[in-house]
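User: Please fill in residues for this 167-position structure.
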């Protein structure tokens, strides 16, 4: 399957075999090329070439391990919803994004639409640690956080690390 790069995203360039490769690698990034090739019905060399193409296109951004944070260290996981002051504009937004990008307690940050601006997933030692982190944010005169609401995470029902969610 071919495509013009300027008119289409990488997903529109992918064929059935490329999608099968991605599905296998999403669940098992440590699989050998030989085993991957057999699962997607290719010989090893063309399979390896397709994986490299997917890496060049940015479809495959890297390889890693799925870490159980609770087994790694005890602590508290929270979902935090943040609303910035409406009248502060892009500069405040960029400052907030830089702050959370540099904050080791912030595991994920999503810019969302609607009544709030950001949805964060945060990991802290305990509630006091969470309080000290977020109090520094709230006290900042540059961030203009209007509202910050935290919800402790009770359990992970479906992890996002292996699921795209689009069928």
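Assistant: Residues filled in for all 167 positions:
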């Amino acid at each position: 399957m071919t495509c013009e790069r300027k008119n289409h995203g990488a997903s529109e360039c992918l064929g059935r075999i490329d999608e099968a490769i991605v599905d296998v690698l999403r669940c098992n990034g440590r699989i050998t090329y030989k085993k991957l090739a057999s699962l997607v019905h290719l010989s090893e060399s063309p399979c390896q070439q397709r994986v490299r193409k997917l890496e060049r296109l940015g479809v495959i951004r890297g390889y890693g391990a799925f870490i159980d944070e609770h087994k790694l260290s005890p602590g508290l996981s929270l979902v935090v919803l943040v609303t910035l002051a409406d009248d502060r504009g892009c500069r405040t937004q960029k400052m907030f994004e830089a702050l959370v990008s540099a904050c080791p307690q912030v595991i994920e940050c999503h810019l969302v639409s609607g009544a709030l601006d950001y949805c964060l997933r945060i990991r802290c030692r305990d509630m006091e640690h969470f309080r000290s982190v977020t109090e520094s944010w709230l006290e900042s005169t540059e961030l203009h956080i209007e509202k910050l609401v935290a919800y402790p995470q009770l359990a992970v029902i479906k992890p996002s690390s292996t699921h795209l969610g689009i069928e």
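For context: Residues 13-57 form a domain with the Arc Repressor Mutant, subunit A fold (CATH 1.10.10.10).
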